[in-house]
Amino acid sequence: MKKSSAISAVLKLKLLLSLSFLLLATNVPAQKTEHYNSPLYAPKTYDPTQTGTSNGLPTALQSVGIEQKLNGQLPLDSEFKDENGQIVKLGDYFGKGRPVVLALVYYECPMLCNEVLNGLTGSLKGIAFDAGKEFDVVAISFDARENDKPELTKNKKASYLNRYGRAGSGAENGWHFLTGTQSEIDKVTQAVGFNYQFDEATNQFAHAGGIMVITPEGKISRYLYGIDYAPKDLKFALIDSAEGKIGNPVEQLYLYCFHYNPATGKYGLEILSVMRLMAVATVLGLGGMLFVFWRREKNKSAVLK
Description:
The chain has helices at 2-25, 112-125, 150-164, 182-192, 231-241, 249-256, 271-304; strands spanning 41-42, 65-67, 79-81, 87-89, 100-105, 136-141, 175-178, 194-195, 197-199, 204-206, 210-214, 220-225, 258-261, 266-269. The chain is an alpha/beta fold. The protein has a five-stranded mixed sheet with strand order 7-6-5-11-12, with helices on both faces. Strands 1-2-8 form a three-stranded mixed sheet.
């Protein structure tokens, strides 16, 4: 009778293992790729069925927006001026094993750019990673007129370091505010798909709001849209972009259950990954129970002998 029960238990374990392997091997996307029908943000590819759909923008502003160029390479040889007035290469902020959050703004922007930087700072305050240690922040002005205003970038950096509020953490080495000539600015904006227009009537720039997360090698990894970035989305984007080099094991496991949607620039729960983890946990739990029962029966047999 005992022998029959043991055989039955082994058969059940084999069945569970087979089901788990099927789940792990299944490669079914948990989220469909959707067309992000917005006048300012666009996925890498468009839905052909939506060609000709009006986006509600004036003709002069049709080209304004962010066109994703995921995995594109930043021009690391482009030259800018930092907050100290020193000429630097964009590549100076890469190759250190840390991802970079890139914000394209202009410092005298009366509204949207400040909201982008405020939203970014607020989100960074909500995560445990420190600028200058696990990642860097690089803000680049796309207004070439600001290249001749050295005090502007210095004051901007001081303001956002104060807003970030992590004195003593080395944050001053992780925040960088740059200006440049039009030709160098164009290299970066074209590389990341950031399209903007100058409006002479208002003497302002028409542009979209958003940030990009770049790998340590200078590849575009993630786009986060708008002016409000959930700390969870930004943390996952940094871990993804660092290729697993930052974040503790629990965060790495948590990230496995979420999937980046390029159309929305957000992370959503991936049900299939959760099912896989549950299946593995179930198999491990049952395996542990069977092992305990087997050891118990073995000890009983030894005592009887």
